[in-house]
């Protein structure tokens, strides 16, 4: 098991290197001068050239990339061109907000999505099933930023019970998390429903029912546990998406997270900050995927048997 | 049912104190900034959004009053030498920095010389040579030549006065933990989200009426408007395309402030490319219907201008007329230039509504004379790299903003040949010896009457040579809750929160 986890960690290294190389290349090829972005739009060209020299921006692409990788391997992910602070410090300051939104969004999606999916499956073609499927379709179709703006209009402007912008208290996270959760919740409803429908038609469920097992036990013990495997995968993917894709929601709710940091870095030609934040998001995404794989072992005995001898 | 009611009651109790005390307390304000603060070092930024906070934390030798006049701030008296090449200041006594130290002549000399040596502040300091201490109360600033707008430069936050000892010890730390003499002390920074400042009790003009100032970074215009409507924000910079104007003006709890913008929106040509031909430039000048352009681009919220100098500048000629709108003449000029069957050109613009919308209207207007414009919107940083720094464009639409209301600021860096070829801000590559001569004379003259004459000539050359086409000048706007006093829209977006009160 530990060997497997170690192997997965090692597999992340080429992935992160690949990401850094792709981003480094893209940032290098697109127009825009980091030195000018730092000195200001109207700075004299000679000052811009001087700063380019100081930053080593006039060196060959491969020398610059090699230097970046060497520093990164020693834990130095560079210094932001825009703010002149170490990239890792900026990530440390920004990541908690993104993590809180993503965690809360996943919790909301699970808390509503899985139970509704189960009820839908158990009561297939009932009014509840149709209503939940319609809601799922609606939530998948509605863009999160629009949902966010509508929430602000209702809860902040009209009812004045939730703050619109910022991340000072837990109340600040409710609307952004709910807006983010909507689409993920819809996915979970549909996925739980379809996997449950598949499982409850299996012979062993019929056997359990005929042996007189109570319905609650049949649903939760026999059906749900077997139906959960793809749902756990979906939750893992959702969480990874939420970590990297909170940009629009962060903008709408005035929260400074990883998403806004990435976009500001692209706009400011701040390559060190961009590469560091994308690599960090990729690393966290990799960790989440690993966690999901480890959870399989505990949920599905068939998977466990692959890793545990005897 | 009973359970649901209890749950609702619990939720209402939890939700009720949702707005923090600061939002309602009448000795604090919450404002919007549209971008993240990059630095608190006044000598290492050219960003307008950074300056807004610098005006609260630092003071300069002079400050601007709401009516636009300049008054001494950290100096009490000043005089010019007979030739205008030197300025001598008597510094204000007993002024304290936020760390309790008293401001000295050494601090003033150090700050001015640091600013003079910084590439970030050259817009304001390029004319300054050196500052020296005369005695404990007096500082002398030597200029490269006499310069009428010098006081405007010394109002800028780029010439803020900082404590020498603290700044010198660790400039990088200073950029995070600034110490100034200004009315507000920086208390908290949440990167990319908010800045909290508190009134400085020992401020030399007395403690500010607003005790706590929160600056929130809200990039989305819709969210900002709703935050203002919900009472979470007390003041904000409205949307640049004036899209929220009606909503704010229609709300009795809010006020919308307007002032002329110290900025001219214009069509610029690359003088080295296809538009080296004057006839083509004139064809464009004659084919633009400015009233229609304003209506389509900014919903009529601008004034058309023919002057090559931003109308707010006192030296800008009044009632100056450009070329008349004349499509027939424009088509004739196109034919004379060798394009009777039309011409395809690319217009590179910054990909923001205040540039792309006018570009679209211009595209439609110029099509009428056979000039087919392909609009190429790009990121701001890319536009500055390609078009502004490297001159890789045919034609563009840009806002020429100034930081000091004087015609020299509006013309010299932008039009003089010494500023072309990447050396300065003459990104169009204009090289006109006659124009250079008038710009130099106007810069060096201390006679305002003469300067006005020179700048009239400058405007005439811009028109006759169609060096660029001035189109319109917009409005600076500000929105605030009705109860907040002392708010106004500043043409250069310079705000002193010290003047605000409830």
Key terms for this structure?
A: 310 residues, mainly alpha, MetI-like fold, 14 helices, 78% helix, flat, B: 502 residues, D-Maltodextrin-Binding Protein, domain 2, Dipeptide-binding Protein, domain 1, Dipeptide-binding Protein, domain 3, 3 domains, 18 helices
CATH class of the largest domain in chain B: Alpha Beta
Radius of gyration of chain A: 24 Å
* Widest beta sheet: strand line-up of chain B: 1-10-9-8
Helix content of chain A: over 70%
Number of helices of chain A: 14
How far is the N terminus from the C terminus of chain B?
A: 46 Å
Tell me the β content of chain B.
15-25%
Helix segment tally of chain B? 18
CATH T-level topology of the largest domain in chain B: Dipeptide-binding Protein, domain 3
User: Oligomeric form of this entry?
Assistant: heterodimer
Structural domain count of chain A: 1
Q: What is the name of the CATH class of chain A?
A: Mainly Alpha
- Supply the CATH superfamily name of chain A: MetI-like
What's this, in brief?
The complex is a heterodimer of chains A (310) and B (502). Chain A is mainly alpha-helical and 310 residues long.
């Amino acid at each position: 098991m530990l060997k497997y986890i170690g192997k997965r960690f090692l597999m992340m290294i080429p992935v992160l290197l690949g990401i850094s190389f792709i981003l480094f290349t893209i940032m290098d090829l697109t127009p825009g001068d980091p030195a000018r972005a730092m000195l200001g739009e109207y700075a004299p060209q000679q000052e811009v050239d001087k700063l380019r020299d100081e930053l080593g921006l006039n060196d060959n692409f491969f020398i610059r990339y090699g230097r970046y990788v060497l520093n990164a391997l020693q834990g130095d992910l560079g210094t932001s061109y825009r703010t002149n602070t170490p990239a890792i410090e900026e990530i440390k300051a920004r990541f908690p907000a993104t993590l809180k939104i993503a965690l809360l969004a996943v919790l909301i999606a699970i808390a509503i999505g899985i139970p509704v999916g189960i009820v839908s499956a158990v009561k297939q073609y009932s009014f509840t099933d149709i209503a939940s499927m319609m809601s799922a379709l609606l939530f998948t179709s509605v863009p999160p930023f629009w949902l966010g703006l509508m929430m602000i209009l209702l809860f902040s402007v009209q009812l004045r019970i939730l703050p619109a912008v910022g991340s000072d208290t837990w109340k600040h996270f409710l609307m952004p998390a709910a807006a983010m959760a909507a689409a993920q919740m819809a996915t979970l409803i549909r996925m739980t429903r379809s996997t449950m429908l598949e499982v409850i038609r299996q012979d062993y469920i019929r056997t359990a029912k005929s042996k007189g097992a109570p319905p609650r036990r049949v649903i939760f013990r026999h059906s749900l546990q077997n139906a959960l495997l793809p749902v756990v995968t979906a939750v893992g993917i959702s969480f990874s998406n939420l970590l990297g894709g909170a940009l629009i929601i962060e903008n709408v709710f005035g929260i400074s997270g990883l998403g806004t940091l990435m976009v500001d870095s692209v706009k400011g030609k701040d390559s060190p900050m961009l590469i560091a934040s994308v690599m960090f998001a990729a690393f966290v995404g990799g960790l989440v995927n690993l966690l999901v794989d480890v959870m399989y072992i505990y949920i599905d005995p068939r998977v466990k048997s692959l890793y545990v001898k005897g | 049912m009973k359970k649901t009611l209890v749950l609702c009651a619990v939720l209402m109790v939890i939700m009720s104190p949702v707005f923090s005390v600061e939002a309602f307390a009448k000795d604090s304000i919450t404002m919007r900034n549209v971008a993240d603060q990059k630095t608190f070092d006044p000598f290492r930024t050219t960003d307008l959004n950074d300056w807004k906070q610098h005006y609260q934390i630092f003071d300069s030798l002079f400050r601007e009053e709401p009516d636009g006049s300049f008054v001494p701030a950290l100096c009490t008296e000043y005089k010019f030498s007979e030739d205008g090449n030197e300025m001598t200041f008597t510094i204000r006594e007993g002024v304290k920095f936020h760390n309790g130290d008293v401001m000295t002549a050494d601090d003033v000399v150090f700050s001015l010389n640091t600013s003079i040596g910084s590439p970030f502040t050259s817009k304001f300091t390029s004319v300054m040579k050196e500052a020296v201490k005369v005695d404990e109360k007096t500082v002398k600033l030597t200029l490269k030549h006499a310069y009428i707008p010098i006081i405007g430069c010394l109002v800028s936050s780029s010439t803020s006065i900082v404590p020498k000892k603290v700044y010198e010890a660790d400039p990088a730390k200073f950029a995070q933990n600034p110490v100034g003499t200004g009315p507000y002390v920086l208390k908290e920074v949440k990167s990319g989200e908010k800045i909290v400042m508190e009134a400085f009790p020992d401020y030399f003009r007395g403690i500010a009426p607003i005790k706590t100032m929160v600056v929130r970074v809200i990039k989305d215009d819709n969210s900002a408007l709703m935050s203002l409507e919900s009472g979470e924000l007390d003041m904000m910079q409205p949307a640049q395309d004036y899209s929220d104007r009606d909503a704010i003006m229609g709300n009795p709890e809010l006020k919308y402030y307007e002032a002329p913008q110290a900025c001219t929106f214009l069509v610029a040509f690359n003088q080295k490319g296809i538009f080296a031909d004057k006839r083509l430039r004139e064809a464009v000048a004659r084919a633009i219907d400015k009233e229609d352009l304003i209506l389509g681009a900014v919903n009529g919220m601008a004034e058309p201008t023919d002057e090559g100098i931003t109308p707010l500048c006192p030296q800008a000629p009044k009632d100056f007329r450009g070329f008349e709108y004349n499509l027939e003449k424009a088509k004739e000029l196109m034919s004379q230039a060798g394009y009777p069957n039309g011409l395809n050109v690319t217009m590179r613009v910054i990909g923001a509504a205040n540039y792309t919308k006018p570009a679209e209207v211009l595209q439609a207007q110029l099509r009428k004379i056979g000039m087919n414009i392909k609009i190429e919107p790009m990121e701001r940083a890319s536009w500055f790299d390609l078009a502004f720094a490297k001159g890789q464009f045919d034609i563009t639409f840009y806002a020429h903003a100034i930081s000091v209301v004087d015609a020299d600021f509006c013309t010299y860096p932008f039009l003089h040949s010494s500023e072309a070829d990447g050396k300065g801000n003459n990104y169009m590559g204009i090289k006109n010896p006659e124009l250079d001569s008038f710009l130099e004379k106007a810069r060096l003259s201390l006679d305002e009457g003469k300067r006005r004459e020179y700048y009239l000539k400058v405007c005439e050359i811009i028109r006759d040579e169609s060096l660029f086409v001035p189109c319109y000048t917009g409005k600076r706007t500000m929105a605030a809750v009705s109860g907040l006093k002392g708010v106004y829209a500043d043409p250069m977006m310079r705000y002193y929160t010290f003047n605000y009160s409830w």
